Amino acid sequence: MICLLQRVTQAEVRVGGEVIGQISPGLAVLCGFQPHDDTDSLKRMAHKLLHYRVFADDNDKMNLNVQQTQQGEGGDVLLVPQFTLPADTRKGLRPSFHTSAPPAQAEALFEQFVQEITEAYRPPQTGRFGADMQVSLTNDGPVTFWLEN
Questions:
Q1: Looking at the domain that runs over 2-148, which CATH code has it been given?
Q2: Cα 132 to chain center, whole Å?
Q3: Known active-site residue 33
């Protein structure tokens, strides 16, 4: 599993012009799934995502995770399924998607990942699997990390 995590002041996902997911300060996360991903990898990534320290403490050091930010109230999480994220781009000028999980598997993994985040923290906002989504955000910093497990 691959997650592209961005610390944001706001983010939203639209489908057909309608806002389907929207957050205030927190994490916007593009989620890519690979054929070998399973329940254990989803649990590890959920833990990493919720505990990754990307928010500033009182000394302006990145020592707080999304659950500790916003004066202890915690920040929001937006999860967006991203089929192209695990693409193999090492050769040529066209990506290969043999490293991405097939759509049915990836959709089930995304739903399970949303559940993992919900159980460990609180329900995230989400994009819609398989939809043509428009994602807009304001990256805070900018702070962006590529997480793999």
A1: 3.50.80.10
A2: 17
A3: no
pLDDT along the chain (149 residues), means of 10: 98 98 98 98 98 96 94 92 95 95 97 98 97 98 95
Per-residue model confidence (pLDDT) at position 73: 86
Active-site pick, 82, 110, 113, 129: 82
**CB neighbours of 31 closer than 8 A, spacing ≥ 6?**
1, 2, 3, 79, 80, 81, 82, 85, 110, 113
Q: What share of the chain is helix, strand, coil (3-state, %, to 5)?
A: 20, 40, 40
Whether 55 is catalytic is no
Domain boundaries along the sequence of the chain: 2-148
Q: Which of 83, 110, 113, 129 is catalytic?
A: 83
Catalytic residue status for 84 = yes
Cβ neighbours of 57 (radius 10 Å): 12
Do the bridges between strand 125-126 and strand 76-81 make them parallel or antiparallel, or are there none, so unpaired? parallel
pLDDT number for residue 9 = 97
Task: Please tell me whether the overall predicted TM-score, pTM, comes out greater than 0.90 for this model.
Answer: yes
